[in-house]
Design goal:
By secondary structure, the chain is α+β, with helices and mostly antiparallel strands. It contains 3 helices and 4 strands, in the order αβββαβα. The chain has a 4-stranded mixed beta sheet with strand order 1-2-4-3, sandwiched between helices. Helix 2 packs across helix 3. The protein starts with 10 loop residues before the first helix and ends with a helix.
Length: about 110
Amino acid sequence: MLPKKNRLKKKGDFEKVLRGGDWFRETFLVLKKRENKLKNSRFGFIVSQKVSKKAVARNKIKRRLRESVMPLIKKIKSGQDFTFIALPKTETKNFLEIDEVVKKILKKAKVL
């Protein structure tokens, strides 16, 4: 599980990242990034009903994204907020494909 200090929780925090951040896109994933004034980086995950109507599938995608990010937390530059947005193709991907794209998109954002 992602440590509490590394989670985006409040709706306002998500909105700040979505409104004012830089964005990067890969095949089935979008990353929004914005600086914060904290010592650590925080992560949020958005999987809408456009991806899947089933809550079980959406939660599975979120778990896979969190598990992909967790080992990278110490390597990622601190002081930034990130929001990963899953696109409709994400439901058909396995963990290894998701993990690979997460690493690729973080390198593209120059935070790894």
